[in-house]
Amino acid sequence: MASAPSSATPVKVESGVAPLRAGQGHSFLLRRLHSLTGIVPIGFFLIEHFVSNAFATKGPGAYTKQVEFLSGFPFVVGLELFGIWLPILYHSLYGFYIWHRGESNVADYPWAGNWMYAAQRWTGAVAFFYMVWHTWHLRFSGVHILTYPASAFGKVQMEFQHPWAIAFYALGIICASWHFAYGLWLFAAKWGIAQGPIARRRWGYVCVIIAIGFIAVGAVTMYSFLTTPQQPYQPSAGDMDSFTMR
Ligand code: HEM
Fold first, then answer.
1. Does residue 16 fall inside a structural domain?
2. N or C terminus of the chain: which is more exposed, having fewer CB within 10 Å?
3. Digits of tens for pLDDT over the chain (246 positions)?
4. Which atom of ligand 1 is nearest to the CA of 39?
5. Is the CB of 204 under 6 A from ligand 1?
6. Residue nearest (by alpha carbon) to ligand 1 atom 33
7. Is the CB of 156 under 6 A from ligand 1?
């Protein structure tokens, strides 16, 4: 009589990052979309956001010009909705779902992989709560920056009135930077761009440099807001004139 296969049959576990495979139902598509949205458009937006804010290092005038440039785009709210908010919402909610399901991005658990796996989830979670708080304060409450770009510098400075708020900004910048940089590494491994252990190790060094670069730009930008004398953030009569003349 043939015996049933033993439940103790060892399962072969490959090392490294598991590629995204077709044939796993619609979750394959949703995971690919999660992976892709991390780069396009969210990653691109993150780069633009760090660069735009870095104009603060050139003073309030340069910062105002950059905000004016961005708010001058046609269909700004549509661009924000489809290019930023909905993709971030999808990536975040699906990210929490992946976390909840305990789906792994590494097939075995070497020490570093285990830590990186946890760090990718926790930095995503911190970034999520940071983004909700940050956008509520700067985009959806108080002076409307898109209408009054000259108020932007002072409004950001008002964010830094409390040491806890400064600390939360620093934490948000570190988490978003690390999450994106390690995300670049994951993406290259999953989509077959960095193949083999040597390419992945080298790409890993580049991603660490990218993370440090983002954190450094964020730190210098914060320093500029903190060391410039407080700028007015309530729109003046002049701002209103220039707005109505457009
Ligand atoms: C600052 C905004 C964010 C950016 C730029 C970003 C970017 C990325 C990138 C590029 C990846 C790699 C894609 C891949 O796995 O192939 C990734 C992965 C991931 N993200 Fe985000 N993300 C952001 C916010 C979030 C949030 C708020 C969460 C919510 C928890 C999250 C959860 C995850 C998870 C769980 C992974 C790993 C997926 C896996 O292990 O397969 N992300 N992210």
1. no
2. N
3. 334 444 455 656 666 777 666 555 678 899 999 999 999 999 999 999 999 999 999 999 999 999 999 999 999 999 999 999 999 999 999 999 999 998 765 544 456 778 898 999 999 999 999 999 999 999 999 999 999 999 999 999 999 999 999 999 999 999 999 999 999 999 999 999 999 999 999 999 999 999 999 999 999 999 999 999 999 998 875 554 444 333
4. 10
5. no
6. 95
7. no
Q: How far, in Å, from the CA of 40 to the mean position of ligand 1?
A: 12
Q: Pick the atom of ligand 1 nearest to 98's CA.
A: 35
Q: 106 phi and psi, to 5 degrees?
A: -120, 140
Q: What is the position in ligand 1's atom list of the atom closest to the CA of 127? A: 27
Distance, CA 39 to ligand 1 centroid (Å)? 9
Cα angle 38-187-220, degrees, rounded to a multiple of 5? 60
DSSP state of 119: H
Place of tokens 């830590």: 115
121 Cβ below 6 A of ligand 1: yes
Atom 6, ligand 1: which residue's CA is nearest?
A: 38
CA dist 176 and 129 (Å) reads 11
**The ligand 1 atom nearest the CA atom of 175:** 1
Domain that holds residue 196: 26-245
Q: Residue 184 maps to which CATH number?
A: 1.20.1300.10
Residue 59 lies in a domain: yes
| Protein residue with its CA nearest to atom 17 in ligand 1 | 183
Burial zone of 26 (CB within 10 Å; 0-12 exposed, 13-18 middle, 19+ buried):
exposed
Q: Within the chain, how many helices (H) and strands (E) appear?
A: 10, 0
Nearest-angstrom CA–CA distance, 53 and 60: 11
